[in-house]
Write a structure and sequence with these properties.
- This protein is mainly α.
- Among the domains are: 12-105 and 117-134, no CATH class; 199-262, Structural maintenance of chromosome 1. Chain E (Arc Repressor Mutant, subunit A, Orthogonal Bundle).
- The protein has nine helices and five strands, in the order E-E-H-H-H-H-H-H-H-E-H-E-E-H.
- The strands form two sheets. Strands 3-5-4 form a three-stranded antiparallel sheet, with helices on one face. A two-stranded antiparallel ribbon has the order 1-2.
């Protein structure tokens, strides 16, 4: 396929129809060029734009080329009846002065080139400082700004307002009670109370039980429901009764039940 046969990309669509060329009677209002010229924020901004547009090393500015382009912009602004600030004209004079100093031939004899200052040095320093400030301003402009990226919201709060307490549910009360109960178990104290048990009183009790004179099995004299302390006291009471010869303990064979019987007074005397 021939390149000429490829469909051309339209410049625009007017009423749905593609337009491939600018109309011959296209009119560009002067205000459009005026807007383009006045968008620079000063002579340094215009000069930096010319340098960066052509990828020129800012430390080795070709003064003749840059001065010519700068003067062309200044003349364009004057042609558009844009009121030039004095600083634009001052920069033009500075460029011309630097260009003139560079064109002036230097004496060959008795010149120390190491000590000679470059006429462009002051301009390069100002351009570098301006570029750094411009980059810093662009970085700050990216940050969110009030009334541009967000709006302050003012809320009126009464200095004295009634406290709104949260609603309490039945589950909240249950959890509060469980927590209180758990804490109380952690701080409670153990109180050891001594039981008032008497060996002598238990001895009298045993004598009353076996007073009828029949044999009682050893286990019948112990009440397991009264706890260990009473069992101990009962056992000591039986030993004391045996020691005082008031009861007799008998067993008919090994591993057979032990029996206890009251010893009558006449038997003890015999």
């Amino acid at each position: 396929m021939n390149v000429a046969d490829l469909p051309l990309t339209p410049l625009a669509h007017v009423f749905g129809e593609p337009v491939h060329a600018f109309p011959a009677d296209l009119y560009i209002p002067p205000e459009a060029l005026r807007v383009l010229l006045i968008e620079f924020e000063g002579p340094l901004d215009l000069l930096l734009y010319l340098i960066r547009k052509q990828n020129i090393d800012i430390l080795n500015i070709p003064m003749s080329q840059v001065t010519t382009q700068y003067m062309a912009y200044v003349e364009a602004m004057e042609a558009c009846h844009i009121e030039l600030a004095a600083e634009y004209l001052l920069m033009a004079a500075m460029l011309i002065e630097i260009k003139s100093r560079l064109l002036v031939p230097k004496p060959v004899v008795e010149v120390d080139f190491m000590d000679e200052e470059d006429p462009r040095a002051e301009l390069m320093r100002r351009l570098l400082e301006y570029e750094q400030m411009k980059l810093a301003a662009q970085a700050l402009d990216v940050l969110p700004q009030a009334e541009r990226d967000f709006t302050w919201v003012a809320v009126h709060v009464e200095s004295e307002c009634a406290a709104v307490l949260p609603d309490v549910s039945l589950m909240d009360l249950k959890l509060a009670w469980l927590g209180l109960s758990a804490r109380s178990q952690q701080v409670q104290h153990h109180v050891i109370a001594s039981e008032q048990l008497s060996v002598r009183a238990q001895m009298a009790h045993i004598l009353r039980v076996i007073a009828n004179g029949r044999y009682y099995e050893f286990n019948e004299l112990f009440d397991l429901q009264q706890g260990v302390p009473l069992l101990v006291v009962t056992f000591i009471a039986i030993l004391e009764l045996v020691k005082e010869r008031l009861i007799s303990v008998t067993q008919y064979a090994v591993l057979t039940p032990v029996y206890i019987q009251l010893i009558r007074a006449e038997s003890a005397a015999a």
